[in-house]
Amino acid sequence: MSASIEAGRPIHISFGSAAPGHDSTPLALATADFAYYTAQRITVGDALPLFSVTETSALPLAFDTLRRAYEISGRADTYNELRQRRDGVRRVGARWYPSGPNSLAFASGIVAMQSEERVASHYLLGRMGIELALMAEAAQRQRISVTAGSDQLAGQAVAYAMADHALIGDEMFAAGSYLGQTPELLRRSRIADALRLTMAAVLVIVAVIAVVQPLLQPGGA
């Protein structure tokens, strides 16, 4: 984020196909949290962050997240100025690209945008599959940092193998807490940790009972 501010180049955050109103709603909201706190930290820069989605229902969420980041930083006027290019064409901070499983169109759009907008770094989160490999490989060729994570097994494998920084499993849901550090977010993360530990303990207890119970019955040995 510091490099983006110094170079005057935008960062890119992708929701993938995560969107409200689908089974990926929690993931879309978690990505929005991460995008909000990330954008808030670079509002002092001269480059408008870029958000990308593949589901139209995620566009309002992306636009509102970007707007709130600038408003909470007291730079709403800067947000409006950055959206206005010198040639008079409105610049869009949130962009839609074609969706679909293993969407080559989505990956191609991100690769083209990467060169056109001179992206400083990628944060490829949300729901993505093997198309993540195309975006990560294109970023590597231009020495662009990539932080990636996905709720899909194929996307996680690609992120672990090719990204500079990979978010594995529920780290995507805690990413906003890492950056926000607000009491509400930290409390939410602690509750999630407690529930996860409780579930793990229950599974262990059930497994132990399943193994020990037959041995305690007459003739079990």
Q: By helix and strand content, what is the structural category?
A: alpha/beta
CATH hierarchy class name of the largest domain = Alpha Beta
Integer average pLDDT: 82
Radius of gyration: 21 Å
**CATH architecture group name of the largest domain:** 3-Layer(aba) Sandwich
Residues in helix, %:
55-70%
Question: Can you describe what's shown?
Answer:
The structure is a single chain. The protein is of the alpha/beta class and 221 residues long. It has two domains: 2-180, 3-Layer(aba) Sandwich (Rossmann fold); 182-221. It contains nine helices and six strands. The protein has helices at 2-7, 25-41, 59-72, 76-82, 104-116, 131-141, 153-162, 171-180, 183-216, and strands at 11-16, 50-53, 94-96, 121-127, 145-149, 165-167. The protein has a six-stranded parallel β-sheet, sandwiched between helices. Helix 2 (25-41) runs parallel beside helix 8 and helix 6 (131-141) runs parallel beside helix 7 (153-162). The longest helix is centred in the C-terminal third of the chain and has 34 residues, at 183-216. 38% of the residues are buried. The model has no long low-confidence stretch (mean pLDDT 82).
